[in-house]
Each structure stands twice: as structure tokens, then as C-alpha cells.
Q: What sequence folds into this?
């Protein structure tokens, strides 16, 4: 009898990229629900715009590169980029801002470098930085979170959609009516005004650790992240690295001067720190390769987030921290190469 | 009573995989004896080293245990007739070693009488013989490593005695899924394994042997422990290791058992260890204590393409088709025939290939599930996490694509043991092991090319040198003639010129 030849191993892998990406998207769902609860339906429109731009951009680039578009789109990675960008942007963002970021991320940061697997920079963060520089005003506009008894203006779905499409608010409302300083903003400007952290932390927008709403979203992001670890979609090294890189300097400074330095808890539950630790920095393509390298890479990002927040001009530093460490990946990979079994010592050098 | 082996002071193995064992399919029945087949096909190249040279001619009648072919060089093993009959052909025949492509084989038409040589030997009182005599004896038994690597045992032992050995390690790990021939051997013939181990200890003049079994074989462990108690030999220790693929790889086993790493490019003997498969130990026992050379082996026939998976003891040279028939034949789904396990086994194109000394498993599989296209590497790092040698397969893959030989060496491509773990965890479905095999072949090719270029360069330089030497010799000769002529004076010169002119004039 004749048989078909096959190359060893004669077993098939169980993991696949599409399923990994689907699980990343699924892990974001609880946080998305919390986000919509606290900040209104804007996230949904951002997601739609970002998805359309990412998918369209990817299809276009695949066509220009002379490859089948379906192949690239079926790995779901463009959707993850879209989701991360949508999460990073304020819930009220005009469509052209979102689309610019999404297109830059996909077209320039991803496909001009050769598509998935070859991009040096995290596409979502590259896109975010571009719109941060190009549309700084829009990126500062965060609506107030839902805060129980506090009087706040909440846009209806229609009003949110109108803003997303036209970039203008309903006639009766001004930006001041609907927006609030984010916790990080409030902390930074408060400290600049020589107020103490205790005073700043007593503002109504502040919650137990971070800001009202924000910290709940953070909780759900962490839950999603731990679920991804259980599912082995991500490993623990990068989240731990980011956490340690951010919390250790924050903790030391806070212990030395609790009145002028926000607590580690505040750092962790504010801004995009948790999103970064579990979802952004863990993008494998643009991260370091080995477990040790990933700890270093994560720690670098964590520390840079702390440094930018504390000493930089920007309120949050996640995108810059990630992009800077993306640049450091080749060096980290060289230095942290594991010792091959049977070889005498670490061969890694610069 | 030496109780069940404890897992203790084990070294650590990086990575590895916990694979579904799928061994119980073939361990339900005791080892079955296969009836003598009509024909036996014996490849003359069943081992590492030089192919054996036939000593018999077509038409010659042979007896069971007769040497049919002997290795010409220092590395190789003899091939014995597994049964009596007539040599009907010496011709190319499909063999498993070449994925079902033909290689030279001696074909015996069995007479069914299974008559043994008269010199079918009595037990050898090995304990009274010096170690190297025992090694010489083992050499004649045609015994090769039965774990699958088929390195001639005697030569492996001879190399080892020249080293400073601490441990003999008997490999009963059998870590690949499906394969259960060693498990069954340990269950049914534990005494013979222990006996083989003691012969090896004597031949090597060693006093410490570990018999190592994976924890998922409790019955084998029980039987071995009992056999060791019976033997009462304190030099033997039973060790239990966790069931992780590829703990049964030679270097990996050494690392697990002794916490020593085999140096890159080196052998376990470099760090004082000699590894032998438990099946090899039993074969040594059979040869020295029962006079039976390596003419049969236990093999597992299993997989979802086989009706009744089992372990059989069959003569070397039995066509696989007959073994499959004995095991109830193929199921309708049978699509792939793999010799060895599903991780490292060789897939062959037809079942006419004979059972050889290396055939520890005949795995018949249905079509593998569709796997989707190969996607670009997303650097997830799962491959590095499971690599038992702690390589970075994703980086090696990158350099293999770029054909960057220097970086491939730097990143340890040569150290890859081709266990296949990285393939199995790759979400992009990149055939890493295959790509690495190709890259290794390419490096060897480059090394050959380099050697050829180096030879050509030396040839060229030698030629230039020779020309230069000849040139200077000619010049010296000319100068000498000139000087001679000058010394002879003007008359002589005129004489020479005149002669020359006359010659030109003709």
C-alpha cells in the first residue's frame, strides 16, 4: 500500500494567530462595557471608525503589495490594533482623528515595515502618537465619568454620534460643560500648583486608587489580562516588568515624600498603565524575544511611564514609553540571549 | 525490597512539552510473536557507519544466526540471517531509512524450518572474561542502539572505555507518544534488562548504573524494581523522571539524571556518562546469555490507521505490510506511515519496507487535520519557551530565512536536536524543525563549498609557486649558459652564432 509522505513532526499545532487575536479582543470586552458605562457610547463609535480604517488600510496595503488581502485580515491583528487605539483615545473623538491614527498605524507602522511580524513599532501606539501630536486639543477632551450624585452632563447616543461625525457639540453645550480633567491631569496640575497629594486626592473625580470610573475599567482590564495569561495568549513577564518598572520608582518616591508624590496605586490605576501592561506592551511582534528580555523590556516601559508622568510635559507616557522601548528591542535581545544548553556562558554581547 | 523508585536530585530540563501519551492503545496485549514471514529483506545499511558488505551469494542457503554481511571499516555492525532459507536476491529494495526509496538489501526466501547455526552459542561466562573481550563479543552480535539512533553498540562502548566514566545510564524514558515497545519490554523482560546492565557494567569496568524510566510507566517501574531486588546488585539504581517530551533524548536524559550538560558538539562520555537504551541492554543479554544475535526486535504497531494496535516481536527483515496485517490491517482512514514516533519519526511512502534494527514503532495515521497557511512569525516566543536546548527558534528562523550562516552558528542552529516542540506550539504554523533541518544541510553544504574553495585556492597557489620556481630555474639555467659562453671566449660565441644561423637557414 502507498502512503503520503509528511515531514516530522506528524502532529499539528493547536494554537493559531487568529485565535490568539480573537482572545485578546474577547479579553477587552469587560473593560469595554465598563468604559461605555462610565464614559458613554463614544467608545463604540471610535471602535467602528478605527476598525473600518484599520481593515480598509490593511486591505489597501495588501493590494498594493500584491498579496491577497483576506490572508492578512483573517489573522484579526488589524482588529486588535483598532481596539487598542480606540481604547487609548478619549471617548469623544471626531472620526478623522481616529481614522488618521488607525491609518498611520496600519499603513506606515505595520505595512511599510513588511506587515505583521516585521513591524518594529507597535502600530496602535504609533498611530496614537501621531494624533497626539497632530490633534492635541482633541486628545485632551475627556468627558466626565458617571459619578453617582455628582451633577454632570451626559451626551446621548445621537449627540455622541453627531460629535464623532462632525466634531461639534450640541448648541446648548460647551466643552467645559461636559469635560473634566482626568485624574492624571488633575494630579499633575495640582502638584504644579503646590497642592498636596492628599488635597488632590480629595477631589470628587478621584476614587479609591485612581479616578472614579478609570479604576473600574482598570480592574476589568486586569481581569482580561489575567485571563489571557491563563489562556497562555500572553506570558507574565511583560506585565510584571511594566508593573515593577512603574511601581518600584513610584513606591520609593512616594515613601520618601508622600505629600508630593502620588501613590503607586494611583499610578497603576490611572491613565493607560494597566492597558499597557496587559494589552499594549504584550504585543509580541514589537516586544523583546526571550523571557529575560521581556522582563527588561517591560520594566523599561514601566519606568518610562513613570518618568514621563513625573518629569515630562505629557500627562501620560504610555505611547512614548512603548515606542522608545520598541527601539531598544534589538539591543535587549542581544544582551538577554539565554545560554544555550551545553555552552559555557551567556554569549550575548552588544 | 527496593521499593518503587523515588524521583530525586534530578537536573532540570528547560521547556519540553507534556504530550498526550496515546500509549495505552498498544499496551493492552502482551508482546505478540509474529509468525515467520515468507521473505525477509535485510538492508545492509541498518546502522550508523559504513554499510556492511555481503558475504553470501545468490542461491546460497543460510541458517538462522549466520552472518550475511560484515562492515568493511571500523564503524558498523554485521547483519545476521534472522531465519533459515535461501538468498534469492541482493538488490535495491524500498527501505525506511530512505523514506521508502530503494537501498541495497539481501533477500532471503525462508524455508520455514527456522534452523539455527550449529554454533548457536551457549551462555558466555562473561564475568570471567576481561572487559575488552566482552566488547569484542558484543561487536559480533550485530547489536546497535535500539532507541532509534542505531549507533553500533560495541563501538560506542569502545569509545566510552577510553573516557573517564562515572555512570552508565539505561534509557527507559520512551518519551514520544504512541511508542510503547520499551515499556512492554520493561514489563515483560525486566530481568533481561538488569542482566544486560550488569554485563555492560562489567565490560565498562563501572560501578554505577541508573535505569531511568518516565513516571507514566508504573508497571515497568514495578517490574524493574522487582528484578533489581532479585539481582541484589547494589551498583544498579532505578530513577524515575517526570513525563515530559523530550526527556528521553540522550543529552536531555543525562541532564535530567546527573544535572550535567553535554557540551555543545560533544558526547555524554565527555561528562562521564554513557547512555544505552533498555532494549539494547536486553539485546546484549540475549546475545551473551542465549547466543542469539540481533535478529529480531519488539516494535509497536499503532495509530488510528491500524485496527488492533499492539506490540510485536518480529524478525528483522519482515515487511511492514505483514506486521500491519497481523495487527488487524489498516483502517479506512490510514493515510501516513511513520517509522518512529509522531514527533521525530520518518514518514515512508509504502509498506514494502522491511523492519530494521531501528524500527521501534510503526505508526499509521489518518490524514492530519488541515493546518491553515503558514503565517509570518509574530515573535510570540512560545518556541523559545519549549525549546529543551534553550535556543531562540524565532531568531534562528529569521536568520535561516536570511541564509545568514554566521548568525545561525551564533544562535546555535547546530545545537538544535530537532525534537519538534517548537513546531507544535507555533501559532503561525511555521514548520520550524523542517526549516532548521534544511538550514543545517545548507550550512554543511556551505562548509563543503568552503572546503572545496579552500582546496582550489591551495591548488592555485601551489601552481603559481611551481611556475615561479620553474621560471627562476629556467632563468638560472640561462644565466649559467650565458656565463659559460662568456667564459669560453669570443671565438666560441662566434661559433655558436654561426651554428644558430645555419640552423635558422635550414
A:
Amino acid at each position: 500500500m502507498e502512503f503520503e509522505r509528511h515531514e516530522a513532526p506528524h502532529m499539528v499545532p493547536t494554537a493559531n494567530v487568529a485565535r490568539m487575536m480573537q482572545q485578546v479582543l474577547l479579553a477587552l470586552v469587560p473593560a469595554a462595557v465598563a468604559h461605555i458605562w462610565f464614559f458613554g457610547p463614544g467608545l463604540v463609535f471610535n471602535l467602528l471608525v478605527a476598525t473600518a480604517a484599520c481593515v480598509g488600510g490593511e486591505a489597501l496595503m495588501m493590494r498594493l503589495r500584491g498579496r491577497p488581502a483576506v490572508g492578512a485580515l483573517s489573522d484579526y491583528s488589524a482588529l486588535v490594533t483598532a481596539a487598542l487605539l480606540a481604547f487609548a483615545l478619549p471617548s469623544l473623538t471626531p472620526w478623522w482623528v481616529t481614522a488618521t491614527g488607525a491609518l498611520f498605524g496600519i499603513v506606515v507602522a505595520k505595512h511599510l515595515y513588511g506587515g505583521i511580524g516585521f513591524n518594529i513599532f507597535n502600530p496602535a501606539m504609533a498611530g496614537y502618537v501621531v494624533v497626539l501630536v497632530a490633534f492635541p486639543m482633541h486628545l485632551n477632551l475627556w468627558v466626565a465619568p458617571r459619578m453617582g450624585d455628582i451633577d454632570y452632563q451626559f451626551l446621548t447616543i445621537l449627540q455622541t454620534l453627531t460629535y464623532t461625525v462632525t466634531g461639534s457639540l450640541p448648541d446648548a453645550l460647551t466643552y467645559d460643560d461636559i469635560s473634566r480633567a482626568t485624574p492624571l491631569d488633575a494630579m499633575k496640575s495640582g502638584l504644579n500648583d503646590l497642592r498636596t497629594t492628599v488635597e488632590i486626592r480629595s477631589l470628587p473625580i478621584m476614587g479609591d486608587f485612581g479616578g472614579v470610573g478609570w479604576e473600574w475599567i482598570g480592574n476589568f482590564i486586569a481581569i482580561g489580562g489575567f485571563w489571557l495569561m491563563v489562556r497562555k495568549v500572553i506570558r507574565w513577564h511583560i506585565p510584571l516588568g511594566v508593573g515593577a518598572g512603574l511601581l518600584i520608582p513610584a513606591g520609593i518616591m512616594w515613601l520618601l515624600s508622600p505629600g508630593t508624590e502620588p501613590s503607586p496605586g494611583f499610578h497603576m490605576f490611572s491613565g493607560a498603565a494597566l492597558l499597557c501592561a496587559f494589552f499594549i506592551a504584550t504585543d509580541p511582534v514589537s516586544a523583546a524575544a526571550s523571557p529575560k528580555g521581556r522582563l527588561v523590556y517591560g520594566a523599561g516601559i514601566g519606568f518610562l511611564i513613570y518618568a514621563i508622568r513625573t518629569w515630562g510635559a505629557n500627562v501620560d507616557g504610555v505611547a512614548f514609553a512603548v515606542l522608545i522601548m520598541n527601539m531598544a528591542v534589538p539591543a535587549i535581545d542581544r544582551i538577554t540571549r539565554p545560554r544555550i544548553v551545553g555552552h559555557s556562558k551567556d554569549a550575548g554581547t552588544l | 525490597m527496593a521499593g518503587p523508585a523515588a524521583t530525586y536530585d534530578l537536573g532540570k530540563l528547560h521547556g519540553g512539552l507534556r504530550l498526550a501519551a496515546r500509549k495505552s492503545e498498544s499496551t493492552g496485549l502482551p508482546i505478540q510473536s509474529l509468525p515467520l514471514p515468507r521473505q525477509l529483506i535485510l538492508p545492509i545499511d541498518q546502522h550508523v557507519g559504513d554499510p556492511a558488505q555481503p558475504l553470501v551469494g545468490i542461491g546460497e542457503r543460510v541458517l538462522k544466526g549466520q552472518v550475511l554481511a560484515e562492515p568493511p571499516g571500523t564503524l558498523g555492525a554485521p547483519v545476521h540471517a534472522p531465519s533459515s532459507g535461501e538468498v534469492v536476491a541482493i538488490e535495491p529494495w524500498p527501505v525506511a531509512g530512505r523514506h521508502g526509496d530503494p537501498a541495497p538489501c539481501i533477500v532471503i526466501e525462508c524455508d520455514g524450518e527456522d534452523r539455527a547455526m550449529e554454533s548457536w552459542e551457549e551462555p558466555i561466562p562473561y564475568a570471567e572474561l576481561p572487559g575488552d573481550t566482552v566488547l569484542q563479543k558484543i561487536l559480533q552480535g550485530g547489536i546497535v542502539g535500539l532507541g532509534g539512533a542505531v549507533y553500533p553498540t560495541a563501538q560506542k562502548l569502545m569509545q566510552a572505555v577510553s573516557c573517564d566514566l562515572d555512570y552508565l545510564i539505561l534509557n527507559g524514558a520512551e518519551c514520544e507518544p504512541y511508542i510503547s515497545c520499551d515499556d512492554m519490554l520493561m514489563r515483560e523482560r525486566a530481568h533481561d534488562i538488569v542482566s544486560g546492565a550488569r554485563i555492560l557494567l562489567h565490560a565498562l569496568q563501572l560501578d554505577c548504573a541508573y535505569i531511568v524510566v518516565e513516571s507514566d510507566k508504573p508497571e515497568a517501574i514495578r517490574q524493574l524494581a522487582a528484578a533489581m531486588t532479585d539481582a541484589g546488585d547494589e551498583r544498579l539504581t532505578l530513577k524515575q523522571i517526570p513525563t515530559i517530551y523530550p526527556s528521553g533524548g540522550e543529552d536531555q536524559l543525562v541532564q535530567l539524571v546527573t544535572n550535567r550538560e553535554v557540551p555543545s558538539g560533544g558526547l555524554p562520555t565527555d561528562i562521564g556518562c554513557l547512555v544505552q537504551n533498555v532494549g539494547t541492554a536486553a539485546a546484549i543479554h540475549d546475545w551473551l546469555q542465549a547466543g542469539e544475535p540481533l535478529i529480531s526486535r519488539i516494535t509497536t504497531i499503532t495509530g488510528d490507521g491500524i485496527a488492533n494496535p499492539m506490540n510485536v516481536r518480529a524478525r528483522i527483515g519482515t515487511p511492514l505490510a505483514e506486521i500491519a496485517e497481523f495487527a488487524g490491517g489498516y483502517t479506512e482512514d490510514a493515510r501516513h506511515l511513520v517509522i518512529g514516533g509522531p514527533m521525530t519519526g520518518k514518514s515512508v511512502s509504502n509498506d514494502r519496507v522491511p523492519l530494521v534494527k531501528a524500527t521501534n514503532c510503526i505508526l499509521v495515521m489518518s490524514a492530519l487535520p488541515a493546518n491553515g497557511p503558514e503565517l509570518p512569525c509574530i515573535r510570540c516566543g512560545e518556541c523559545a519557551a519549549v525549546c529543551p536546548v534553550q535556543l531562540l527558534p524565532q531568531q534562528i528562523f529569521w536568520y535561516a530565512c536570511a541564509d545568514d550562516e554566521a548568525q545561525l552558528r551564533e544562535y546555535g542552529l547546530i545545537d538544535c536536536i530537532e525534537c519538534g516542540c517548537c513546531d507544535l506550539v507555533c501559532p503561525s504554523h511555521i514548520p520550524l524543525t523542517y526549516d532548521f533541518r534544511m538550514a543545517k544541510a545548507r550550512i554543511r553544504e556551505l562548509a563543503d563549498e568552503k572546503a572545496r574553495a579552500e582546496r582550489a585556492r591551495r591548488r592555485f597557489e601551489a601552481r603559481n609557486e611551481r611556475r615561479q620556481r620553474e621560471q627562476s630555474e629556467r632563468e638560472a639555467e640561462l644565466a649559467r649558459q650565458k656565463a659559460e659562453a662568456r667564459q669560453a671566449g669570443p671565438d666560441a660565441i662566434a661559433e655558436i652564432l654561426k651554428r644558430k644561423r645555419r640552423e635558422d637557414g635550414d
Summary: Residues 16-180 of chain A form one domain. The two ends of chain A are 56 Å apart (CA to CA). Chain A has a mean pLDDT of 91.
